[in-house]
Amino acid sequence: MSPDIRIRRGIASQVIPPFRTALRFSTPRQTGAAVTCWQAHATRRGFSLGADVTGTFGAGSRTAARAVQSRFGLTTLVGGTSNFVDGIVGRRTWLATTSWPALPTPMTAYAFEDLIGEDINATTDEMIADATGVNQIFLQVHNRGSRAVSPGNLRALLLVTGSDSAANVANLPNGYGARLRNADTTAWLSATAWRFADPANIYAVNPLELNQRQPALLSWNVNFAALGFNPGDHVLVLALVHATTPVGDSDNTYTNALLTVRGVIEGAVVAPGETKAAARLVRLDPVVVIPPAP
């Protein structure tokens, strides 16, 4: 098995501002409330405005607009080529900066890959989640083996702990693998630095068969403030996955990156067939409500 985590940060506190006019780098420079509003959303999403003054659409804002367009595949057809980004904040670029695409229910592999819209700080390359409100954390598990896993036979656990790097991760309690296998919902983390990410939904199981063609897609709602974390904190989000159905020899082949994560958690020697893990380091940003431009 091969798990992967993605995060859709909390967005309930933000009202999508209406698009009123295109913003562009020009002489004289465009200024005003619409520029201020778009810049605030771009900064919140992790895009850098460079040295631009708030409320003035300068070269830094144009670079940020190009970064939005490149990241979300917003291109302009020029001479039959559709890979041109113009740095102009038109309607599509405005919406891509100020909102997130709707996600289907149930979740699909396509949406997991292309629609979640993770936010990453352009300067530090840090993943961003909201310090308050609900963040959606999704887990996609691929079956690299030859045997399918029946519905309900894949179990996943999502945990969080405060950490500024993978080298500073707190130890998990002894026997955590057995806790996962038995779907233990007691307070077995209480004496540790770890927390259940979603106390109302500790374990998630696959609703559909997991096979080589169809990954399992699971999710949790995570409120970091309710777990005792504060704005500015860094947290490690850890998914542990166990399948009661064997998935074949190839499920014991790991990338070096995954071995590094598992080595931190489980020690230098990782026995074949044990619980699989995926982890993401996340920075918690304060939620500042951005008013729409008048």
Cα Rg: 21 Å
Structure classification: alpha+beta
Give the amount of beta strand, in percent.
Answer: 15-25%
Number of helices: 6
The CATH class designation of the largest domain is Mainly Beta
- Supply the number of structural domains: 2
| Fraction of residues in H or I helices | 10-25%
Strands, total number: 14
CATH topology of the largest domain: Immunoglobulin-like
Shape annotation: globular
Biggest sheet: strands, sense, closure?
Answer: 7 strands, mixed
Helix-strand sequence: EEHEHEEHHEEEEHEEEEHE
Mean residue pLDDT: 87
CATH architecture of the largest domain: Sandwich
CA-CA gap between termini: 51 Å
In summary, what is this structure?
The protein is 19% helix and 25% strand. The protein is an alpha+beta fold and 294 residues long. Strands 6, 7, 9, 10, 11, 13 and 14 form a seven-stranded mixed sheet that branches.
Q: How would you explain this protein's 3D organization?
A:
The chain is of the alpha+beta class and 294 residues long. It contains 6 helices and 14 strands. The strands form 4 sheets. Strands 6, 7, 9, 10, 11, 13 and 14 form a 7-stranded mixed beta sheet that branches. A 3-stranded antiparallel beta sheet has the order 1-8-12, with no helix packed on it. Strands 2-3 form a two-stranded antiparallel ribbon. About 9% of the residues have low confidence.
